[in-house]
Write a structure and sequence with these properties.
- The chain contains 10 helices and 9 strands.
- It is an alpha/beta fold and 281 residues long.
- It has 2 domains: 173 residues, HUPs (Rossmann fold), CATH 3.40.50.620; 92 residues, 2-Layer Sandwich (Pantoate--beta-alanine Ligase, Chain: A,domain 2).
- Helix 7 packs across helix 8 and helix 9 runs antiparallel to helix 10.
- The longest helix has 19 residues.
- The model has no long low-confidence stretch (mean pLDDT 97).
- Bound molecules: adenosine monophosphate.
């Protein structure tokens, strides 16, 4: 059975004996509505560390749209069952007041502009909310290793920048994106799609695949044009579709040997994001 913990003091008390024995703590922060993508993070943490802590917290500070926050799926009892299925040791359900009580150094940390393009441009304040909550959760859990999905590519870059700027003693692991059989990246928000929207949503994967499959065989602008057309034909509303340097998130230069294509599009009122790494082979 997973131990369910709802406050910091209880968490510290539960973790202390493991810390004293020098055992490693693996941490998987989530917003719940858990799916197989989240499960892959939990199972990797389980394999690589002695004790796995999963947190579930729908963080209001990272939502720039109140309706999106209110409609975010919440499935706590199923989530706990899934965590137990993955043999997670501790499920942490933190309290807002304990996470955001004090002035956080994360709110001032220099992210080298990684928080500015893409999600940062379309969701003002989103990444400040993300890094504040992740910083605070790291402070509560004090993990040796924390696991994040490549699905949220820019989030990973921003969290790595925060860890490096504040010199936090935690190793960040990037885990591959889990997809449905038609390629749609698993996401808690997929639960909000109607059957028709769910079918349309696979246009995101098709658009990314157009770019991945012909990368460096055709001019980038032509590929973006074809992929944009795929998004339009799928009845999705494109917010951005950009090819950027995976380290700087700046538009790619001719000398770059790797790239990542990132997309955000609306399927009805549900906003979905995805990305794919590009290499020339
Ligand atoms: P979320 O609950 O959406 O905040 O996600 C919690 C963690 O799970 C983040 O590190 C996400 O990047 C990761 N994640 C979400 N979807 C997937 C997926 N389809 N495959 C792998 N990891 C994912």
């Amino acid at each position: 059975m997973s131990q369910i913990i709802t406050n910091k003091a209880q968490l510290v008390k539960a973790l202390n004996p493991y810390r004293k024995k020098g055992l490693s703590i693996g941490f998987v922060p989530t917003m719940g509505a858990l799916h197989e993508g989240h499960a892959s993070l939990m199972s990797q943490a389980k394999r690589e560390t002695d004790l796995t802590v999963l947190s579930i917290f729908v963080n209001p500070r990272q939502f720039n749209d109140l309706l999106d926050f209110e409609k975010y799926p919440r499935t706590l009892s199923e989530d706990i069952a899934r965590a137990e299925g993955e043999r997670v040791d501790i499920v942490y359900l933190p309290q807002y007041e304990e996470l955001f009580g004090e002035d956080s150094p994360a709110s001032r940390v220099n992210l080298n502009g990684l928080d500015e393009p893409m999600e940062g441009a379309f969701r003002p304040g989103h990444f400040r909310g993300v890094i504040e909550v992740v910083h605070s959760l790291f402070n509560h859990v004090k993990p040796q290793i924390a696991y994040f999905g490549q699905k949220d590519f820019q989030q990973l870059a921003v969290i790595r920048a925060m860890v490096s700027a504040l010199d936090l003693p935690v190793f960040i692991v990037s885990c591959p994106t889990h997809r449905e059989t038609d390629g749609l990246a698993m996401s808690s928000r997929n639960l909000r799609l109607t059957k028709r929207q769910r079918q349309a949503a696979s246009g995101i994967y098709k658009a990314l695949s157009i770019i991945r499959d012909a990368w460096q065989k055709e001019p980038t602008q032509d590929l973006i044009h074809r992929a944009t057309e795929m998004v339009r034909q799928s009845h999705l509303i494109l917010e951005y579709l950009v090819v950027v340097n995976p380290n700087t998130l700046a538009p790619i230069e001719p000398t770059d040997d790797t790239a990542v294509v990132c997309i955000a599009a609306y399927c009805g009122e549900v906003r979905l994001i995805d990305n794919m790494l590009l290499s020339a082979d």
